[in-house]
């Protein structure tokens, strides 16, 4: 006969097991049939031991990354170096081999300090037009690239070296997302199996900033605001968008009365950004400003809603920077109102996702690799396979659309590829896919009972000091305090380890 104590203990242990997608997501359950069906009893009991979720997903993301590299094979074999449309027709374009020579890495120019000759740049840039930490990443890769052989061969090796470094970033990203989700480590599989990650990871260096941002969010989730701020500052030194996470933290900390934690994060971010940028500002100010002046003066470019407006109306939109700033401020104001008026405080990932999505929707350019900015935030904000597949499908269509448009405009009289009308449709699909996912996240914020994480009793697994905190500043009229459910009352169980056995029943019970 089993005692009540035994049943309670066994039930608690079952609740502490990691949530598996095939158990609670119908799309994941249907997809699991391809691999033999949902998780069985042996895995549920902890029998997989060494094959825990994190190790499995790291191997999966390495495999997907390798497939993405294989997709670039037509360009690696010569498409990058022939110019014109071949690299676009095969959808295998990458900035990395081109900038190896065009930004002076092949001739050992020091980024920001050495002026790039016009004969080398070919694009009007006098210095490297990337943030400082990304420039350091590019320079380290050039140090690891052998300088013997032809320029084409060295550019190929440079791409391979960068790809290896970016593969490490992809593995770090998956590990961070898995560790942030507490009982939902398998949500990292949404990143590991992402087609957008495979297709865009080696186009540019954005994945480096994305990985730094994920480490910062993981540190915040572990209630280490100063260390989190340091990583967010480093990520901002590699790409500007992570600074929006500080705005999300400010709004959430204001509502929860945790402004001291926000101050620590802000201080860490400012300090780390200055440490990285300070030497370059002092020693090579002209080179340091190249990125910021280019971002400010850049006109309407591929992928933006402004391109559709400009080409459809014939208006050159000479003041587009002002329009972009106004739209972004309007969207941020709306997101701030949502954060402060929502019946329950939004989760950190939800607010961060909406702010970065606002930047992407309002920006005057959208390169296909920008999808990586949103990928971990989308998985943390809305870990539902159906919605993420819809969004990713739209992004894959845009990925193909932009290369076919470039093939069309660079193919001379052949006109292989996609005309302007077709490309406008691809942009619209990308925008609608992003807005659809934003709508689902907003619905989860306004109706917390629809949030899959909160259905399981969580408040904010990535929230750190915000997790479970009561609100002290609230502007709405209907207010629901955070709840703490039973699954987290007991000790944490490490993923991939066997659960302790329940005590045997007392013979007298």
TrEMBL record:
Q: Where in the cell is it found?
A: Cell membrane
| Membrane topology category | Multi-pass membrane protein
A GO term from the CC aspect: plasma membrane
Bias (Basic and acidic residues) ranges: 1-23
Report the main location listed first in the record: membrane
Keywords of this protein's UniProt record, alphabetized? Cell membrane, Membrane, Transferase, Transmembrane, Transmembrane helix
Cross-referenced InterPro entries: GT87, UCP010361
- Statement: the UniProt record of this protein carries the keyword Transferase: yes
Q: Which GO terms describe its molecular function?
A: hexosyltransferase activity
Question: Which spans are transmembrane here?
Answer: 50-70, 157-178, 190-220, 226-254, 261-282, 320-341, 348-366, 389-410, 422-442
**Region (Disordered), start-end ranges:** 1-30
Similarity-based family? Belongs to the glycosyltransferase 87 family.
Q: What is this protein called?
A: Uncharacterized membrane protein
- Annotated organism of origin: Actinacidiphila alni
